[in-house]
């Protein structure tokens, strides 16, 4: 099932996307059971919004071996966690703003996990039952600040630095999913979540040992190799098989 959050004529709706048609729901799918209602909308007539408004946005770094190698970093023995500001989230087709052209600012395609129910101290066996679904994410990163600060919060939390979307797919195997990023039509990142060092289950176990996860929270699972810099006017497309394509551009 593909869940979508969108705006039409100034009103925000929640729906289920089938082909190009959205069937409206009677409420926010993150907040509890919802029913389809009879109204439908065409995908090309709506503004697609980020499919969740996370209270917490938690990321895992260096979770693909080839990316750790390209950054010259050793592989973390445990999932390496850091927090991002939820105010950085934008949706499909929205513009990313580079705060400065003096720093290198990179794209990072990632599988993003959306939490469905409160989770604390979950076991590996039950971990995936806390997942609502999966979406595409971009962990846009100011590399200059990342190195200067020695931690990642400022470098990764600027407004517009966390595109999510376009939908939440509930039926996905997070251990076997192709993930790809194209910049201006050229493939730059091309991997599979089977290359994750720490699986989605392991991430949920380790993160929920520390903090309580709430419905709508997002876990970004790390980026594969092939990261690179953004420039004004760039067009980005992240495709995760089974979810779809998250498209964004860099504002001039
Ligand atoms: O610490 C560094 O110099 C670089 C770290 C990374 O590239 C990790 C990162 O930004 C996030 C990720 O691996 O997904």
Automatic annotation (TrEMBL):
Entry EC no(s): 3.7.1.2
Xref: InterPro entries: FAH, Fumarylacetoacetase-like_C, Fumarylacetoacetase_C_sf, Rv2993c-like_N
Top class in the EC scheme: hydrolase
Pfam families: FAA_hydrolase, Rv2993c-like_N
Domain called Rv2993c-like N-terminal: residue spans: 1-51
GO molecular function: fumarylacetoacetase activity; isomerase activity; metal ion binding
Residue stretches making up the Fumarylacetoacetase-like C-terminal domain: 57-250
GO biological process: carboxylic acid metabolic process
UniProt similarity note: Belongs to the FAH family.
Protein name: Fumarylacetoacetase
